[in-house]
Design brief:
Blueprint lengths: L2 H14 L14 E2 L3 E6 L2 E6 L2 E9 L8 H9 L12 E2 L1 E4 L6 E7 L2 H6 L9 E6 L2 E8 L5 H17 L9 E4 L12 E6 L3 H17 L1
Parallel strand pairs: 1-5
Antiparallel strand pairs: 2-3, 3-9, 4-7, 4-8, 6-7, 6-10, 9-11, 10-11
Length: 216
């Protein structure tokens, strides 16, 4: 089981005990990370994201596959912070790291107002506040139950589309989930995001490659 299935398993557990805020309202009731659509092609978009402030924690499997990553973040926004401040749930939940692997990072986006004021420091040293650098991303949207197999399939489709458009893709990708566990799979909003390299970065990579080939 990967962090994607752990994430949704955590949501199911929280919903069962009535602790998860997502079990109370629809997705549309939550503030969502803003972005500007640059280009749209069916289920694929090129988006420009601003810098975002995340409350993030490492997400790693263990013997029982319950690493508590979602609960740590949920406790933080529920008041487990220096100000004992309750912070509204937002969408999406970002899952960073190599898709399909057993370790990575899970992050909750801080609401814009909280980010502007400065979010309170976490009480748990396993929860960190960090900036998610903005920029241009290729994004593919899809439904279904998000797991490693589906994520990798959608990532491959997105990379092929980027290649056809001659867009330079970063090697890593991230997943984003928008829905509570009781949402039927066909109605869920999942996304895979791949950062588009800037022209400067792409030129730098080309220079390094040319230099290496010349040395050989």
């Amino acid at each position: 089981m990967t962090r994607y299935t752990r994430y949704f398993a955590s949501l199911i557990g929280l919903a069962a005990i009535g602790a998860c805020a997502w079990a109370q309202t629809e997705r549309e009731g939550y503030e969502s990370a803003g972005y500007k659509v640059i280009e749209s092609d069916g289920a694929i978009e090129i988006r420009e994201y601003p810098d975002l402030m995340l409350a993030a924690t490492d997400s790693k499997s263990d013997a029982t596959d319950r690493d508590g990553s979602f609960m740590r973040l949920f406790q933080y926004i529920s008041g487990a912070n220096e100000a004992e401040q309750k912070i509204a749930m937002t969408t999406p939940v970002f899952m960073e790291g190599e898709l399909g692997q057993s370790s990575g990072s899970m992050g909750f986006v801080m609401p814009a107002e909280v980010a502007a004021q400065g979010p309170p420091d976490p009480n748990n040293d396993q929860v960190k506040l960090r900036k998610r650098k903005g920029g241009r991303f290729a994004v593919i949207r899809f439904s279904g139950r998000l797991d490693a197999e589906l994520a990798k399939k959608q990532e491959a489709k997105l990379r092929q589309w980027m290649k056809s458009r001659e867009l330079q893709a970063e090697p890593s990708a991230e997943a984003a989930g928008y829905d509570p566990p009781f949402t039927p799979p066909q109605q869920r909003r999942n996304e895979i995001l791949i950062r588009v390299k800037s022209d400067a970065a792409a030129d730098g990579d080309a220079d390094v490659k040319a230099k290496t080939e010349a040395e050989e």
